[in-house]
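Q: I'm writing up a methods section and want to include an example of the input and output format. Could you take the sequence below and give the corresponding predicted structure tokens, formatted cleanly so I can copy it straight into the document?
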Amino acid sequence: MLVLTRKQNQSIVIADNITIKIIEVNEGNVKIGIDAPKNIPVFREEIYDEIQKENRRAAEVSKDLNLDGLLKG
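A: Here is the clean output for your methods example:
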């Protein structure tokens, strides 16, 4: 993991097309802005974890379905 120190209005550039800017630092909170191409999904970690959990659950349900019976019936 790369750890950097940044101040308000400073940025971090990832590759050629993603910029992370520190917008505001206030009482233990940091507001950041992320500029990335639309084809690159950007999520808060807790939302990303929920998406992954839901995807795993959907895959399990699909595996359990008997599709042959549905097609013949």
